[in-house]
Amino acid sequence: MSNANTHANTHAAIIAHSYLDTWNATDSLQRRALLESAWSEAPSYVDPMMSGSGREQIDGLIAAVQKRFPEWKSSLVGTPDLHGAYLRFSWSLGPEGVDGPVKGTDFVVLEEGRIKAVTGFLDQIPEHA
């Protein structure tokens, strides 16, 4: 693997983990700090169940998911892919330490290395979720 590919993979993993850290931050001040540092000035988020524009709305979406699934955490599944300003990675959501019953794949558009737009796909949702 070339040095450029190693750097891209490392950068992709850092961004994906930062994104998941935002979704896992239950403290609203910590979550807002992550939104300010890792997300662009005017980010957007959309998946089949919800959407939001701006940090405040995205913060509200994350808080709503945390309320619905208390104690559950998002985890990275596999290796993220970075191509220019585009990032793709898969994740799972569930109790910590187990294979999460909810799984998805997110596509991220970056702006100056920060998250600008997220389009999420839900790959697996249990009936009771």
TrEMBL record:
Top-level taxonomic group: Bacteria
Protein name: Nuclear transport factor 2 family protein
Organism of origin: Herbaspirillum frisingense
Taxonomic placement: Bacteria, Pseudomonadati, Pseudomonadota, Betaproteobacteria, Burkholderiales
